[in-house]
Structure formats: structure tokens, C-alpha cells
Design goal:
With 889 residues, this protein is mainly beta. Helix content is 7%, strand content 64%. It has seven helices and 48 strands. The strands form five sheets. It has a 26-stranded antiparallel beta barrel. A six-stranded mixed sheet has the order 8-9-15-16-13-14, with no helix packed on it. Strands 3-2-5-6 form a four-stranded antiparallel sheet, with no helix packed on it.
Length: 889
């Protein structure tokens, strides 16, 4: 049993008591009233801010509703400075002492006799909410010693940044980043939070329901959350940025320039990174962001692609990394916008893993050690043009090119019942993809808007997988000739051409009603060739019988849709729709041809109740289908590993999924925010893997079940924001029932995953600040022949202290791992420390950076697939000590 069983509730109790002590002696009161003009009409959108004289207490902020009324929470026996502002009117400033009772008061604003510009300059509130946009004036929350944008965002109420650089606001993940209303590189938050200097940021704007075409916002619902960074006036016409350089023991080095230039017509951004340390600038999550896909089916397809599988290997203990990115944007006038950006990466790394495999259903055990050299080269470039001839028309076109060359050369040691076998592997991938998009949006009148989009994609992949050994280690399904040395190669090529189109027309006869007519479709063509052969001699090889595919596929899909959206009382939205889907595909393998076609209705619906900008309830339902990918329908066998053979299934059909989701959002800038999601999913006729095994030798084939299986998920998150500290508690639950097929027998399985996260951060102006997070995970998987129960606890603690010209940063990551089924326990930690010195107004900063001070060697984790359970022990990057010199442009 781990200390986590005591640690987690103890920390929770401590933090709750800490919060209680801060406000135990003071009762929370309601300060309400109205803001009126000279004619006693309510002013909607006036800003009310109450600053407590005691700086350790949170300020209170609100805005007036459509009747000019407001309500804010204050503390009893506390003196506040009240500020009320509204554009075009003179501000009201006065001091109010709240005793022990609720207070109601009306305020009448006088129209300003000054010019509007002067009113704006006289006062700008630190937080301003206007419909879907929340604006933060950053100088009101920072102390000037922050280095990057990520440190600024952490100090803004309602905003959080995780370890990967992802940004969250109101429990939503930020989808894109703009600087001065221009997309920053690929738009991914990580590149912005880790590279934009903190001292150039004037405002941070969180834009909800963002749409790249402004007039579409009234017609199309959008869940997009975009962050826009407004630069300080002096930074909009000059170069700014940082150049970071570091050297360390054992010949470690890092050079990281980040250079930016913004002007009214042009934008130049450059980010570079050269290092042989533990850090990488481009990972699998970055690749997903470049692809830009959000649908579960599209994301799953990307994750299963060879490129993504190569990039998943992010654990290494030696590394040479070269990365460069350039972004250019040109706006010659208000009508035209040209963007060009490119990213490139060259990467060499060495990995070492130990794996304990338990194969299903035989429960045969294999202990395998891998030592692998990775050599990866990736390039991505895009040219994008946007033309807005008038307020009612937007035309966009872009073309992108993505090239990947990936290589993994490995040495493997496999131990089975005291028999040790050594073999080598080689995996190579070359991928070229070209994508062209064209779209047009037209507002014909106040009631009619049409949109059209078209895309063409061409993708070419060439794969080589090779295994070589002095003994015959291969599955009996891979029949080989007897030789002194056994070598098998599987060579494949895949070519895909996709055409997609989407046409929509929105008709809004009244402000309270809208009809949307849609027509979208796709035409996909796939060609897959692969063959496996045994290398006999230097120039001689023999084809392996049954391991050859010459497959072509043509898929067509046409969807007609109609939806009706009804707005009731300004707060309720009812949105119902129906999609008629027609789909067909033709598969050809050598001389064999198979066909599939189907038509079905897919209902969708959503009910939304928005109490105001900060409170909402949503209930949604949709029915969807997924198309089995072409690889799963191959009739010839494919070698997946030396002991694993995959055979496709040519008679697979579309599985149907039903999803229902209830969500509740109660947001407060300061105070308690609450978010909840309850989900239900039904899988009809799902596709699972049929496993046939003998020891560690496995045959895998997709199989379509006949029946329904359900899964449930729930997430509850509570956040408590104060001016100088934040507390967050999240609990999530996922449960799924399914069927496994082992040696022809169907067996029920059940998986359960429960996660608990606790976060606490402080934001004091002078005192040291801490960040604390603990993540507790419980995973249980059961089928009649196997059970796995795993507990895992991660603890992150960091303390940052700015003292005069010094910055001290210390962090520790502690992991506890307990596999109860295998009776295996372990723990490890990563300790980091940074000390930096920078004289005020000096462009130079020097410091020392230390990574993995405890020199932890390994980390253990596990995962379960339909074929095996594997416990992985990965070798970590060793202790690193770096001397840093940074120069601010």
C-alpha cells in the first residue's frame, strides 16, 4: 500500500483548512444594485470592480445585465474602493465599507464631456467581459519578472497552463493562438506559451465561440476557444524576442533563438532550437495540431498512421535535436491576407526499454529488452491566402506539403522460459502528403448565408520492416527455409487520394429561428501494396507464401442534412437535425471484388440553457458511423512483428455509435467555479480483434460483433480562485463493457479507470510562490483469463521565488507505481532546479539549470491491448547541469 492512501486526503484536508482560515472570520455578503443613465435607463455591460484595501483579499468583479442590474460578492467588515466604468460616461470612484449585512445601491452615470479616446485612456479595467470575449490587462496581475507568456497566463484568474503548454479557460482547452489577430504559426498554444516573451504582452483576450469568418458567428455554433495576444504599443513595429544559449557537462549544449517582428502590414516569426538535452520542440501532440483534426475518427486514423507511431517514441536517454520554424504574414490592405509558414526537424535519439509481455489468452510471458537508434526528419510547409472583397464575402485557399523520413534501427533481446534470443530490427518510413483547401462564405442578406468548402489530399507512404536473427525466432505462420541466418523483410507502399466537399445554407426568417440545409460528401481512393520475403543470401530472396497484398479501394459517401435551431427567451436554444447518409465502397484484391453499400438516418440534437455568460447547461445527442480503414480489409497476411501476423476481413461493415452528453458550467472569475460532464456511449456491432495464439505467437484478425455494448464516463471539476491562490479538484470516471475473442471463443471483458487530480497554486507579489499537483489513477481490466489492477500516483511540486534581481526555481516530480496483479511496485523522481540573475533594464540574463538531480534511471508504466498486457520500464535521461546565458532583443 502506498503513501498516497494517506497523502492524498491529508493534503486535501490541509488545503481546505488553509482556505477556511483565510475567510473564517469574515462572512460573505451580496453587494447589488443598478447602473443608470440620466434618464434612469439601465446601462448594459458597465464594469463594476471592487478593490479591497487588504491586498491579501480577492477583488470582486462583475458587469451589469440588460437592465443595468448587477450583483457581486464581498466580505463583511472590509473596506473596498469601488470603480464603475462605461464607455462614453464619466467613471464613478468611491470607497465603501461593508459591515455585516447585504447592500443595495443605485448609481447614475453622467455622459462624458470629453472625447471618447480620452475616456478610454483615463481608465482601463483589468478584466473586461464583452459577450464572448474576456480581456485581461496583464500588468494588473504580473510583477514584471515573468520570462515567457506561459508564466503570465498562470497568474490570470480562470486560466490554467499544464506541463505540456496547453492552455485552459472555463474548463475548455484553447484551440488556437493569435497575436495581434493573426494566427501564430500553427496556432498551437505550446509554441506561444514557451516562446513569446512575457514583457511584450499588453492584453490577453479569450474569445469563445470563435469563427474565422465574423458574420458566420450569428449562424453557426462553434465550440472553438481562441486566445489573442495584444502587444504593447512599442513592440508592434520593432524586433523583439530572446536568444538563449547554454552549455553543460558531458558536452551538453542548447541554442534557442525566438525572434518576432510585427507591423501593421507584415509579421515575421522565427523559432529555432539546437540541443542534445532532454527537451524536444516537436512531439506527437504537435503533429496532431498540424494535422488540425478534431473528430475522434480522424484523430484515431492519425494516431494509427506510421508517422504518429514513430513520434510516440518520446522516451530517450541520448538526443541530438535540430528544429526551426518560420512564419510570415502579409496584409497589403484590408481585403487580402497572405500567410506562409514552415517547420522542420532533424532528430537523432537513443532509447532503451525493458518490457514484460503477458500474451492473451495463453498467459505466456516474454521479457524483452530493446535498444533503438531513431533518426527522424520532418518538414511541414503551408501557404494560405484569404480574400475579403467586402463585408459579406470571404474566400480562403491554402496548400500544404508534409514530408517525413523516419528510421529506427534496433537490437532486441527476448527471453522466454529461460531461453534468450537476440535479433535486430529495422523500420523505415517515407511519407509525402499534399493537401489543398478552398472555401467561400457569402452573406446574401440579413436572413441568408451560404458556405462551401472543398479539399483534395494526396498521400504516399513507403514502408520497410525488417527482422534478422541467427536463429528462427519467427511465428510458425511465417514459414522459412533453413539457413545459417534468418532475415525477413516486409515492404509496403500506400497511396491515397481523397476529395471532400461541404455545402451549407443557413436561412434565418426570424431572430428566434434558423434552418440549415447541408450537403457534404467524400470520394476516397486507396491503393495498398505489400509483400514479405526471406533474404537467403546477399542477392537472393524468396517470397513468403500468403504474405502479399495488391489492394485497391474506392469509397463514396454522400450526406444530406437538415437542422432547425430555435431560440427561446434569449437563454434557451433547441437544435435538432437529421442526416441521411448514403455510403458505398468497392474493394479489389487481385481478381477478387467485394462491395458494400448502405443508407441510414442519423439523428442529432442539442438543448442549451445559458443563464448568462458564466452559467450554462447543455444536453446533446448524436448518432454517427465509422468506416473500417482499408488496412483492416486486406485479404492477404501482413507481418506486424516477428511473432505476430495480421489478416484482414473483407466483409466488415460500418459500426454505429450513439453518444449522449450532459454538461454543466458555473464559472466565476474569483470564487468557486464548477464543471460537470456525464457521458453515455453505445457501440452497435463494434469491430474487435480476434486473437488466435500459441504461446507468444499470435494471429490477429478484425471481427465484427453482433450486438450493443455501452460505456460510461463522468468528469467533475471544482475550481476556487482567489486573487493570490487557486485550488482545483477534478475527478473522472470511465467504464466500458466489451467482448474479447480468444481462439474462437467470445469472452466478456470490463475496464474501469478512475482518476483524481488536485492542484494548488499561489500568486503572491513578493513572497515565494508554489505549484502543487497530485494525480491519482486507478486502472482495472478483467476478462475470464486475466486481471490487471494498477494504482499510480504522480506528485508535482515547484516553488518559484523572485528576490530582487534573482529568480529561484525548484521542482520535483515523484511517481509511485503499484501493479497489484503482478505484485510489482516502484517509484522514481525527477528533480529540477534553476537559478537566474538579471539586472533590471539589462538585456542579459545568466543562470544555472539542473535536470534529474537524483539521477533516476528508470520509470515503469503499463498498458493493455487486445493482444497482450505489457509492463514497460524505460531508461530516463541522465543528470544534466547547464550554464545559461540569455539575451533579450
Amino acid at each position: 500500500m502506498f503513501p498516497k492512501n494517506i497523502l492524498f486526503p491529508t493534503i486535501t484536508l490541509f488545503l481546505v483548512l488553509f482556505g477556511e482560515q483565510q475567510c473564517y472570520a469574515q462572512e460573505k455578503l451580496i453587494f447589488s444594485g443598478a447602473v443608470l443613465d440620466a434618464e434612469e435607463k439601465g446601462l448594459e455591460g458597465a464594469n463594476i470592480i471592487l478593490y479591497p484595501n487588504d491586498k491579501l483579499k480577492a477583488l470582486s468583479f462583475t458587469t451589469t445585465d440588460e437592465n443595468g442590474r448587477f450583483s457581486a460578492q464581498v466580505l463583511s467588515n472590509t473596506q473596498y474602493d469601488l470603480n464603475i466604468t462605461f464607455i462614453g460616461f464619466e467613471p464613478i470612484k468611491e470607497s465603501i465599507n461593508f459591515t455585516n449585512s447585504n447592500t443595495f445601491k443605485e448609481f447614475t452615470l453622467k455622459e462624458s464631456a470629453e472625447e471618447l479616446e480620452e475616456v478610454i485612456l483615463n481608465y482601463t479595467p483589468p478584466i473586461e467581459v464583452k459577450k464572448d470575449t474576456t480581456t485581461f490587462l496583464t500588468d494588473a496581475f504580473v510583477n514584471g519578472k515573468e520570462r515567457k507568456l506561459g508564466a503570465v497566463l498562470k497568474k490570470l484568474p480562470g486560466i490554467s497552463v499544464n506541463r505540456d503548454g496547453d492552455v485552459f479557460f472555463k474548463d475548455k482547452k484553447v484551440d488556437g493562438v493569435m497575436v495581434e489577430n493573426k494566427t501564430f504559426f500553427t496556432g498551437q498554444p505550446k509554441m506561444a506559451t514557451q516562446n513569446i516573451p512575457a514583457d511584450v504582452v499588453e492584453e490577453v483576450q479569450m474569445i469563445e465561440n470563435h469563427n474565422d469568418t465574423p458574420f458566420l458567428k450569428e449562424f453557426e455554433s462553434s465550440d472553438n476557444l481562441v486566445m489573442n495576444i495584444v502587444l504593447k504599443e512599442g513592440e508592434k513595429r520593432f524586433f523583439f524576442g530572446d536568444i538563449e544559449a547554454a552549455v553543460g557537462h558531458e558536452e551538453r549544449y542548447r541554442f534557442h533563438p525566438s525572434v518576432f517582428k510585427y507591423s501593421p502590414t507584415t509579421v515575421h516569426n522565427f523559432i529555432g532550437d539546437i540541443n542534445n538535452t532532454q527537451s524536444k520542440s516537436f512531439t506527437l501532440s504537435d503533429y496532431l495540431n498540424i494535422e488540425g483534426e478534431k473528430s475522434p475518427e480522424a484523430i484515431l486514423s492519425i494516431l494509427n498512421s506510421p508517422t504518429a507511431k514513430f513520434l510516440q517514441n518520446e522516451d530517450y536517454f541520448r538526443n541530438k535535436h535540430l528544429f526551426g520554424g518560420y512564419n510570415f504574414q502579409f496584409n497589403p490592405d484590408d481585403k487580402s491576407e497572405l500567410r506562409i509558414f514552415s517547420l522542420g526537424m532533424l532528430d537523432k535519439s537513443f532509447r532503451q526499454d525493458s518490457n514484460n509481455f503477458i500474451y492473451q489468452p495463453s498467459l505466456a510471458v516474454e521479457n524483452k529488452t530493446n535498444e533503438r537508434n531513431d533518426r527522424n526528419a520532418i518538414f511541414f510547409g503551408k501557404v494560405k491566402y484569404k480574400y475579403t472583397p467586402d463585408l459579406y464575402t470571404v474566400v480562403k485557399a491554402d496548400i500544404s506539403y508534409n514530408r517525413s523520413q523516419l528510421n529506427v534501427d534496433g537490437t532486441n533481446f527476448s527471453e522466454i522460459i529461460d531461453e534468450l534470443r537476440e535479433f535486430g530490427t529495422l523500420n523505415e518510413l517515407r511519407n509525402d502528403k499534399v493537401l489543398f483547401n478552398l472555401s467561400a462564405d457569402k452573406w446574401f442578406s440579413g436572413n441568408n448565408v451560404s458556405t462551401a468548402s472543398f479539399s483534395v489530399e494526396n498521400n504516399n507512404e513507403a514502408l520497410l520492416d525488417s527482422w534478422r536473427s541467427d536463429t528462427n525466432i519467427f511465428s510458425p505462420q511465417i514459414v522459412l527455409e533453413g539457413t545459417d541466418r534468418f532475415e525477413v523483410k516486409d515492404i509496403g507502399n500506400a497511396k491515397t487520394t481523397n476529395f471532400d466537399f461541404d455545402l451549407k445554407h443557413h436561412y434565418r426568417p426570424k431572430r428566434t429561428r434558423m434552418l440549415t440545409f447541408g450537403l457534404n460528401g467524400k470520394i476516397y481512393r486507396n491503393n495498398i501494396e505489400n509483400s514479405a520475403f526471406q533474404v537467403i543470401g546477399e542477392n537472393e530472396s524468396v517470397s513468403l507464401d500468403g504474405f502479399r497484398n495488391d489492394f485497391s479501394n474506392l469509397l463514396t459517401e454522400l450526406n444530406n442534412s437538415l437542422s432547425h435551431k430555435l431560440y427561446v427567451g434569449g437563454n434557451f436554444i433547441f437544435d435538432v437535425g437529421l442526416v441521411l447518409q448514403n455510403i458505398s465502397w468497392t474493394d479489389k484484391q487481385f481478381s477478387s471484388v467485394s462491395n458494400f453499400s448502405d443508407s441510414r438516418f442519423l439523428p442529432i440534437g442539442k438543448i442549451e440553457w445559458n443563464f448568462d455568460e458564466k452559467k450554462s447547461i447543455k444536453l446533446s445527442y448524436n448518432m454517427s458511423t465509422t468506416n473500417p480503414d482499408a488496412q483492416s480489409r486486406l485479404s492477404g497476411r501482413v507481418i506486424d512483428d516477428f511473432n505476430r501476423v495480421v489478416l484482414g476481413n473483407s466483409i466488415l461493415e460500418q459500426p454505429v455509435n450513439e453518444r449522449a452528453l450532459f454538461s454543466l458550467s458555473l464559472f466565476k472569475t474569483y470564487g468557486i467555479s464548477f464543471y460537470a460532464k456525464l457521458g453515455y456511449r453505445k457501440h452497435k456491432d463494434p469491430i474487435v480483434q480476434s486473437i488466435s495464439s500459441d504461446g507468444i505467437n499470435v494471429n490477429v484478425s478484425p471481427f465484427q460483433l453482433n450486438g450493443d455494448f455501452v460505456s460510461y464516463d463522468a468528469t467533475i471539476r471544482t475550481r476556487y480562485n482567489r486573487r493570490y491562490w487557486k485550488l482545483s479538484l477534478e475527478n473522472s470516471f470511465f467504464q466500458r463493457n466489451g467482448i474479447s475473442i480468444f481462439n474462437g471463443l467470445q469472452q466478456f471483458n470490463n475496464s474501469l479507470n478512475i482518476n483524481n487530480n488536485l492542484e494548488f497554486t499561489t500568486n503572491f507579489e513578493e513572497a515565494p510562490n508554489i505549484e502543487f499537483e497530485t494525480r491519482n489513477s486507478f486502472l482495472e481490466y478483467k476478462n475470464p483469463s486475466f486481471t490487471n489492477i494498477t494504482w499510480s500516483t504522480d506528485i508535482d511540486f515547484s516553488i518559484v521565488y523572485d528576490y530582487k534581481d534573482w529568480k529561484f526555481d525548484f521542482s520535483i516530480y515523484q511517481n509511485f507505481y503499484n501493479n497489484r496483479s503482478q505484485r510489482n511496485q516502484s517509484y522514481f523522481n525527477l528533480i529540477e532546479s534553476r537559478i537566474f540573475y538579471r539586472k533590471e533594464d539589462s538585456p542579459f540574463e545568466i543562470g544555472i539549470e539542473l535536470y534529474n538531480l537524483g539521477n533516476s534511471a528508470r520509470q515503469i508504466s503499463n498498458r493493455y491491448t487486445s493482444v497482450f498486457f505489457v509492463e514497460n520500464s524505460k531508461r530516463l535521461f541522465p543528470r544534466t547541469i547547464m550554464l545559461n546565458v540569455n539575451y533579450k532583443l
